[in-house]
Amino acid sequence: xxxxxxxxxxxxxxxxxxxxxxxxxxxxxxxxxxxxxxxxxxxxxxxxxxxxxxxxxxxxxxxxxxxxxxxxxxxxxxxxxxxxxxxxxxxxxxxxxxxxxxxxxxxxxxxxxxxxxxxxxxxxxxxxxxxxxxxxxxxxxxxxxxxxxxxxxxxxxxxxxxxxxxxxxxxxxxxxxxxxxxxxxxxxxxxxxxxxxxxxxxxxxxxxxxxxxxxxxxxxxxxxxxxxxxxxxxxxxxxxxxxxxxxxxxxxxxxxxxxxxxxxxxxxxxxxxxxxxxxxxxxxxxxxxxxxxxxxxxxxxxxxxxxxxxxxxxxxxxxxxxxxxxxxxxxxxxxxxxxxxxxxxxxxxxxxxxxxxxxxxxxxxxxxxxxxxxxxxxxxxxxxxxxxxxxxxxxxxxxxxxxxxxxxxxxxxxxxxx
Length: 418
Fold this sequence. Notes:
The protein has 418 residues and is of the alpha+beta class. It has two domains: 18-91 and 245-412, Beta-lactamase (3-Layer(aba) Sandwich); 103-232, DD-peptidase/beta-lactamase superfamily (Beta-lactamase). Helix content is 32%, strand content 16%. It contains 13 helices and 16 strands. The chain has helices spanning 2-15, 20-26, 39-54, 100-113, 155-159, 174-182, 191-198, 216-228, 232-244, 301-312, 325-331, 356-359, 402-412; strands at 60-67, 70-81, 86-87, 94-95, 135-136, 146-147, 264-267, 273-277, 298-299, 316-317, 320-321, 344-346, 351-353, 368-371, 376-381, 386-391. The strands form five sheets. Strands 3-2-1-16-15-14-13-12 form an eight-stranded antiparallel beta sheet, sandwiched between helices. A two-stranded antiparallel ribbon has the order 4-9. It has a two-stranded antiparallel ribbon with strand order 5-6. Strand 2 and strand 3 (86-87) form a beta hairpin. The longest helix is centred in the first third of the chain and has 16 residues, at 39-54. The chain is globular and about 65 Å long.
């Protein structure tokens, strides 16, 4: 049996071209049946993803699945650069957008464990610019249409997206319009400048009142800067990326890695793919761009798998511990008073499956996950001891059902449930 396993690993290692970092994953890649997956059904899952490329809905796709710490599937298909004809590869660098948020949330909770703050501390104790922020109320008698918040905004509100901050790009309310006028998301600004602008714009609602997706995690990133005395990028590098050996993750793409950076695509009115960002003019090549804790990072599947495995392991990977298991437990509990969508609550940085039947999709209660604006997606399922990722680069998120199709494809491939 031992000689068979050695032979099998040799076949895997010498028949699949991999980079140095890929080899770390590939050398431990074992038959899926060894951890309760069906090889044939995983192929079915990847065929679904490939069909999106073949139908020219996306340029290329990467899919990756691990269970019990073993990578059982890692495939790419299509192109990272249609114009140059460059293939999607295992070490392709992606814009992960809002998949930055879980990393920022982990950074904040590392500081929480060190005693720097409590979750119910008011944000203005650390960011005084936000002490007098108001709340928009169209029924307010005052000409400004604002009222005082009925409670202070807390760090927990930032982590759970219940602060009242919005994004300004997903709606057209008066507050959204103010965000756009103030250029809240200007990549040439910095987090301090963003906070100063936010201080002059009312919240969408009272803190803690409901879940609203917005710049809460960017404000949390500035909070980390204030507490640590470091830039967010410096903190990430020193406290998370270096310890976890996440060698391709950061806020910009250095020159020596540009050839691995995928183009980002969008659609013409007739549905044709067209490059939205890429090449030598990409803002991601600018080292001075805003270090957005809500959406600024680039990464590779290998790197993010290491981060996800650390979370699945209860805060530890390869002898490096970032968080206590009890802190992870707190983060993946539901911190909302109600579901923000059917069957799902929100924890401290992650969406949480709270009622499987209400989701109307295969999965497990307790799974935590998130996605990025350019269609990167991950799920971490503690019950099944599984991590799955599907990454591509196309705007907008949600135009097609790729995420749900991939999700179903992963779970239908499980033949032994734990």
